[in-house]
Amino acid sequence: MSSEAPYSPTDFSEVFYDTSVLLDFVLSQDDGEAKKLLKNHPSANYTGSTVEREFRNLKERREKILKSVYKSDDLDDWNPPSDVDMSPNDRDWCGDLLTELDEMTTRDKIENRLDFEQRKLNRGIDLLFDLRSNLIESVWPNNLETTLLGRLDFVDNNNDRHVICESADWACSSDSDNLLTSDCTDLLSNRQRISEEVGRNRNLETLHLFSADEFLSQDSAF
Predict the structure, then answer these.
(1) d(Cα 137, Cα 18) in Å, to the nearest integer?
(2) Between helices 49-71 and 158-172, what is the axis angle to 10°?
(3) Burial class, 158, CB count within 10 angstroms (exposed 0-12 / middle 13-18 / buried 19+)
(4) How far apart (Å, rounded) are the C-alpha atoms in residues 151 and 136?
């Protein structure tokens, strides 16, 4: 993660989410912190249009992968569909899934496991964005400050740079300045520099990045 100790939030009432935490929630990829935050913590939940688009695109890619695996007669010879541009996270997810499927003894078990993975993705989109009682209260528009975007060139992933700009724009209109992420490579490892660049370029003291467990551990009222 980062060698810098995380800032202690003064306001826990609102949270802006990166895609990684939402994916942890949908696929149960952490130790339950994302679920505690989204379903049990009293904060209002926000994210950006970049995150929603990224999440829906991820769901579409993985649906194509699951459909292709479902149709495969021999998993040892399976290759991802040519029209799917798999991210490193997609490849890790797919590798773990294929390893799990390889240990199953019947076709019914394999198909049930694939169906379950599909239901998780569908249910995740519903819970986060599409149901009337969806967990994400508002999706912040893609309102980017070009100077800030340019100063974030040390963050390798373009979508991550957009998420930082959207969350900084949201924080300017909020009492909170909390961006939650589980991305250690691009975000948490650079959080001090990100906060400094945001503070230099926005009408905001700074933006503070936390992992889900850091945020929860510092909220003594929860």
Answers:
(1) 14
(2) 140
(3) exposed
(4) 29
Query: Measured between alpha carbons, how far is 89 from 23 in angstroms, rounded to an integer?
Result: 11
- Tell me which residue of 114, 111, 59, 67 sits closest to 87, measured CA to CA: 59
Locate 15 and state its tokens: 């949270």
CA distance 44 to 192: 25
Model-level pTM? 0.90
Q: Report the 10 Å Cβ neighbour count for 168.
A: 28
The span from the first CA to the last CA of the chain, in angstroms, equals 24
Is 219 in contact with 41 (CB distance < 8 Å)? Answer: yes
- For 137, the token pair is 């209260």
Q: Which two tokens stand for residue 59?
A: 């769901």
Model pLDDT for residues 152-187, shown as the tens digit of each residue: 999 999 999 999 999 999 999 888 999 999 999 999
In degrees, to the nearest 5, what angle opens at C-alpha 188 toward C-alphas 170 and 87?
90
Tokens of 120: 């998780």
pLDDT digits (tens, 9 = 90+) for 50-108: 999 999 999 999 999 999 999 998 898 999 999 999 998 899 999 999 999 999 999 99
